[in-house]
Amino acid sequence: MIKLFLDYQDTDKQLLAIEKELKGSQERKDYALLKKSVSDANEQVQKLDRECEELIHSYNKTKGAVDKIIADVNELTEESQNVGDSVEEYDFYIKNIDKLLSQLESMEQELSRLVKAMEEKRKEFDKLMDYGRKITVKLRDAQAKYRELESSKKDEVKAITDKLASMEKQLDETLLKTYKQLRSMKTFPVFVPRIGDSCRGCGMELPQTSLHVLQSAGDHVECPNCHRIVYVD
Ligand SMILES: [Zn+2]
Predict the structure, then answer these.
(1) 71 C-alpha to center of ligand 1: Å?
(2) How far is the CA of 191 from the centre of ligand 1 (A)?
């Protein structure tokens, strides 16, 4: 049984080598980097969008306040015209109108500041969209190149996976499950020989209970430290 597993592991090693080659390729790195850039740009667009929304909200609020003051000034102006000869009463109106007008001035300044800020955001937005379009084109290009590399390995990968699938039929199910689990956790090789009293995988000395199981060729036990399958050569 161990012999079959070792053959299986050897074949699987070829598949791992291809996976590693693909993962470490420049094509994959370029693709990953551009993917990150596009996602960063999207995040920035969303942030700008939120900032613009806040500016619009402030603008509308200030605009509402300005309209209210203008209405108040108009009302006071109208009322002041109905004041008779009372200087005091007239002064009251003038003072209040002046106060409102100075409030109006600062609010209008605030409005123009908000308009300017919105224009700036708009420029930033256009620039970002332009950049986004450019890197999206680059991303598509990098993706195509990576897919090309991937498909250049397709036949090789298929031949190996087909071979693995046919080998699996003869393997012990439980051990195969353990194998696949460890492989998916990037523990490889999964089957390692006993070297002296130690596990070849992690170098740890095996406990007596494990050593007791490992008597003759083909005997195997799980390493309590790295969980690889230690066998007797
Ligand atoms: Zn170990």
Answers:
(1) 84
(2) 10
Helices (H) and strands (E) counted in the chain, each on its own, are: 6, 4
Question: Rounded to the nearest whole angstrom, what is the distance from the C-alpha of residue 101 to the centroid of ligand 1?
Answer: 83
**CB distance 73 to 105 below 8 Å:** no
Task: For the chain, give the number of residues.
Answer: 233
- Per-residue confidence in pLDDT tens, the chain, 233 aa: 899 999 999 999 999 999 999 999 999 999 999 999 999 999 999 999 999 999 999 999 999 999 999 999 999 999 888 877 788 888 989 999 999 999 999 999 999 999 999 999 999 999 999 999 999 999 999 999 999 999 999 999 999 999 999 999 999 999 999 999 999 999 999 999 999 999 999 999 999 999 999 999 989 999 999 999 999 98
Q: How many whole angstroms from 157 Cα to the centroid of ligand 1?
A: 29
With a CB cutoff of 8 Å and minimum separation 6, the contacts of 28 are 22, 146, 149
* Secondary structure class of 231 (helix, strand, coil): strand
CA of 82 to the centre of ligand 1 (A): 100
Domain ranges of the chain: 22-157, 172-231
CA–centroid distance, 201 to ligand 1, in Å, is 5
- Residue 220 C-alpha to ligand 1 middle, in angstroms? 12
Q: How far is the CA of 194 from the centre of ligand 1 (A)?
A: 9
Give residue 20 CA to ligand 1 midpoint distance, Å: 23
* Token reading at 125: 């937005």
Q: Does domain 22-157 have CATH number 1.10.287.1490?
A: yes
Coil, strand or helix at 200: coil
